[in-house]
Design a protein that fits this description.
This protein has helices at about 20-30, 50-60, 70-85, 100-105, 120-125, 150-155, 180-185, 195-205, 225-230, 245-260; strands at about 10-15, 35, 40-45, 65-70, 95, 115, 140-145, 160-165, 170, 190-195, 220, 240. The strands form 3 sheets. It has a 5-stranded parallel sheet with strand order 2-1-10-11-12, sandwiched between helices. A 5-stranded parallel sheet has the order 6-5-4-7-8, with helices on both faces. It has a two-stranded antiparallel sheet with strand order 3-9. Helix content is about 35%, strand content about 20%.
C-alpha cells in the first residue's frame, strides 16, 4: 500500500533551491505538497587571491591529518577543488563530516568518512575519538566565509593546527519585507523547514513585523542549538529533526502530520 503519510500537508522549504530537490521529492512521494522560498544563496569564492590561497592549501592536503567539512556546500565545493588537483585522495587523510547529509556527499568519492551518530553539531563532531587527541596535528576545515568558531577553537585548545579553507559566501536574497508572510498565508503553509541557524535568522528577520503568522505553524530545525534559538526568539512550535538531511526531516514531518493535517 502506498504511504501517503504527508497527504494534505503543505511544507515550505527555505534552503537554496538546488539543495531541496531530494527533500521535495520525498515529501511529494508521501502525498505532501511543497512550496519553496530560498532564504539563503550560496556563491563559491571567485576572488583571485582567495582562490590561490585555497589552491595552495589543496595542493598540500597530504600534510594534514584530517579534513573536516562543516556542511553539504563545503563538501560539494571542497570535493570539486580536491578532484581538480588530486586524481586520488591523499593517503592517510581522514575525512570528518558534520551531519549525515555532508557525510553522504563525501562517501560518493569512496572516502571513509567519520560522522557522529549522536547529532549534527560541532560538539557532536568534537566528541569523536579521532578528534580528541590531536596535539601537534594539522587539520583542514572546509567551510563558508565566516561562521561558528567553536570547532576550530576547541581543536586548537587540544593542540592542533587548524587552517580554514573558506570556499563560499552566503547571501540573503533581496525579498520585500512582506513576501514571506504573504506566501505562508496564501499557500496555506502548515510546516516550515529551516536547515541552519542562519536561515532561521533570515526567517525571523522577514517575519519580525508579522510574527503571528507562525503562531500555530511548526518550524523544523536541524539541532537542539537551533531549536533553542528559535524558542528564544518566540516561535511557539519548534521540532528538532536531529539533522538537515531528507531522512531526518521527513521523519519529523511524519511524526507531526496527524496534528497539523487540515481537518476534512
Amino acid at each position: 500500500m502506498t504511504d501517503l503519510a504527508l497527504s494534505g500537508i503543505k511544507v515550505l522549504l527555505t534552503r537554496p533551491a538546488a539543495q531541496s530537490v531530494a527533500l521535495a521529492s520525498a515529501i511529494i512521494d508521501l502525498g505532501g505538497n511543497v512550496c519553496e522560498l530560498p532564504l539563503i544563496e550560496i556563491e563559491p569564492v571567485t576572488d583571485v587571491n582567495d582562490c590561490e590561497t585555497i589552491k595552495s592549501m589543496i595542493l598540500n592536503l597530504d600534510h594534514y591529518y584530517a579534513a573536516i567539512f562543516i556542511s553539504t556546500n563545503a563538501a560539494k565545493i571542497g570535493m570539486e577543488w580536491i578532484d581538480r588537483y588530486w586524481p586520488q585522495l591523499p593517503i592517510g587523510l581522514s575525512a570528518y563530516a558534520v551531519g549525515p547529509g555532508t557525510a553522504q556527499v563525501l562517501k560518493e568519492f569512496d572516502w571513509p568518512v567519520f560522522v557522529s551518530d549522536k547529532g549534527v553539531t560541532s560538539e557532536d563532531l568534537l566528541a569523536l575519538p579521532g578528534l580528541r587527541q590531536v596535539e601537534g596535528k594539522k587539520i583542514a576545515l572546509f567551510r563558508g566565509v565566516g561562521g561558528r568558531e567553536l570547532l576550530a577553537e576547541t581543536l586548537r585548545e587540544r593542540g592542533a593546527t587548524v587552517d580554514y579553507l573558506e570556499l563560499y559566501h552566503r547571501h540573503t536574497p533581496d525579498y520585500s519585507q512582506d513576501v514571506l508572510a504573504d506566501l505562508i498565508r496564501e499557500q496555506h503553509i502548515n510546516a516550515i523547514v529551516t536547515s541552519s541557524a542562519q536561515i532561521l535568522d533570515v526567517l525571523l528577520h522577514l517575519l519580525h513585523q508579522d510574527a503571528s503568522v507562525l503562531k500555530t505553524i511548526p518550524v523544523i530545525v536541524p539541532s537542539e542549538r537551533v531549536r533553542q534559538r528559535a524558542l528564544d526568539a518566540g516561535i511557539n512550535i519548534v521540532i528538532n529533526a536531529g539533522g538537515a538531511d531528507e531522512v531526518s526531516v521527513v521523519k519529523s514531518l511524519k511524526a507531526i502530520a496527524p496534528v497539523i493535517k487540515p481537518k476534512a
